[in-house]
Design goal:
Layout (H helix, E strand, L loop, with lengths): L1 E2 L1 H5 L8 H12 L5 E3 L8 H6 L5 E4 L4 E4 L4 E5 L4 H14 L4 E5 L4 E3 L17 H4 L6 E5 L5 H12 L3 E4 L6 E6 L4 H11 L8 E4 L5 H6 L2 E5 L4 H6 L2 E3 L6 H9 L2
Parallel strand pairs: 1-2, 1-11, 2-3, 11-12, 12-13
Antiparallel strand pairs: 3-4, 4-5, 6-7, 6-8, 8-10, 9-10
Helix pairs in contact: 2-10
Length: 256
């Protein structure tokens, strides 16, 4: 059982409902493997880990980091190397004006002064652009004040798609880049292989374009009703919205 978090299993306010928490517990109690597959970095997982009573494994940063919720520790990393990071930032700066960058490391993050922080990010001192590319990172983020996410993703893919894998999970012009070939699906497939779980046995839930590789890999795919149009068009089934506990509705039927 694999599910995205924000916009899918979590309510719009970012909380895990009691019904959904109980459904997650039921998955593990049945002996099945529960995996949260999210664009979130580990530093955003503390509240989720507590709400689900430390059940499950989390694939974070769109596949770049594997995080054990039982111990709250990173157990595997797939990072963008410094040379690739420098080249990607240089190419994007040269071809797309007004971009602002931030990076997610295995622990912590850094951002430029004009990068608009998200609601879960605590304000910290901005760093010089050169510092962003000084060490390997799990995820590079590029924010544009005027372009939509779909348009910006297409542009980024055309310019640096041979260097990194770009996707988005936001309604604003924010693109998330991982090491080439690293996706939610690549990480989930590797984890499933270690547990001898075949794609046909997997059920996955999502709502945004960064979920598409995972939903394509899984034998059974669900979108919540509030999902991006591309996701709704790609899945086998549609369940209730995230605020209506759509994921829990399905789990309760599968694990009676």
């Amino acid at each position: 059982m694999a599910t995205d978090l924000d916009g899918t299993a979590l309510r719009t306010d970012g909380t895990v409902s009691p019904r959904t928490a109980a459904a997650f517990a039921k998955v593990e109690e049945s002996g099945a493997t529960l995996v949260f597959v999210t664009g979130r970095p580990p530093r955003w997982m503390g509240g989720v880990a507590g709400a689900v009573r430390h059940h499950g494994i989390a694939i974070c940063a769109n596949g770049a980091l594997i995080y054990d919720l039982h111990t709250e520790r990173i157990v595997e990393s797939h990072l963008i190397t410094v040379d690739v990071l420098e080249e990607v930032v240089a190419q994007l700066r040269a071809n797309v004006s007004d971009l602002a960058f931030s990076v997610e490391y295995e622990a912590g993050f850094a951002h430029e002064s004009d990068f608009l922080l998200g609601a879960l990010d605590k304000a910290k001192g901005a760093v010089h652009a050169d510092s962003l590319t000084a060490r390997p990172c799990a995820k590079l983020l590029a924010l544009h004040p005027g372009m939509g996410a779909d348009e910006l993703q297409a542009t980024v893919h055309e310019l640096v798609g041979h260097l990194v894998t770009a996707t988005h999970s936001s309604r604003r012009g924010l693109i998330e880049m991982s090491a080439q070939g690293v996706t939610k699906a690549s990480a989930l497939a590797a984890l499933a292989g270690r547990h001898e779980i075949k794609p046909a046995q997997a059920v996955a839930f999502g709502d945004m374009p960064n979920d598409l590789p995972m939903l394509s890999w899984a034998g059974t795919s669900y979108a919540v009703a509030n999902a991006h149009p591309d996701v709704l068009a790609a899945v086998d089934h549609v369940t209730g919205t995230n605020d209506d506990d759509g994921v829990a509705q399905v789990i309760e039927k599968l694990y009676r």
